[in-house]
Amino acid sequence: MPLHILYALLPESSSDASWQRELASLPISFLHEAKRFVRPEDRMAHLLGRILLAKALEQMGFSRALLASLQRNSHNRPFVPAPVDFSISHSGSLVVCAITAEGRVGIDIEAIKPIDFTDFSKVFLSLEWDIITADPSPLEMFFRFWTKRESVLKATGSGLSGTLEYVERSFNRARSGDTLWHIQDIPSWQGYACSVATDYLCGSVKLIHLEI
Predict the structure, then answer these.
(1) Cα–Cα dist 143/56, whole Å
(2) CA diameter of the chain
(3) Domain limits of the chain?
(4) What is the pTM of this model?
(5) What sections of 165-207 are H helices per DSSP?
(6) 3-209 — its CATH code?
(7) What is the residue-wise DSSP string for 110-136?
(8) Which of the residues 7, 97, 112, 155 has an alpha carbon 20 to 30 A from that of 189?
(9) 60 by DSSP, 3-state: which?
(10) Coil, strand or helix: which one is 70?
(11) What's the order of all strands across the beta sheet hosting 173-176?
(12) Radius of gyration, CA atoms only, the chain
């Protein structure tokens, strides 16, 4: 079965009827959890991630009722009691959810926007940083490498404190701890960088656009 990546745009208004219907299908605890976000767009992105997860579980043949059993491991990484792994990311107006029954997965998406990325030089390996700064579009290359790194670290649950070592010049395979991760760029959205990492060699990726 291919790796599934579901994605959707944030609704234009929280009062949209279709958005309210989707919210009504979520466990009430998710709505309370979202209140911790100060900005309305962050609350909507968090809840849209949960909606995508519900639909992703259904795509994999499971009941969305599993959402009520959502738990977190020692790294605060969410999981459900089913033989699947998932990862959710959002940036700008896009939210993505990757799900697989083959192993572990991490996904990261970032809107490419002007920032002083030199503040992050110590996050990267010297080889990564040399490629970023030498590229004709260093900002875009920065975000490409950032999502590669984050996709792996989100899969492990270790965050930026985790270590990453590439094992080939293509930067499509990396080792973190004892695990070899396979990384794919997902160049499907203009103005965004996105990468997905799996601890198995992923044969195909199925992108599913949902209208919310």
Answers:
(1) 26
(2) 50
(3) 3-209
(4) 0.94
(5) none
(6) 3.90.470.20
(7) EE-----GGGGGGGS-HHHHHHHHHSS
(8) 155
(9) coil
(10) coil
(11) 105-111, 192-198, 179-185, 173-176, 165-166
(12) 17
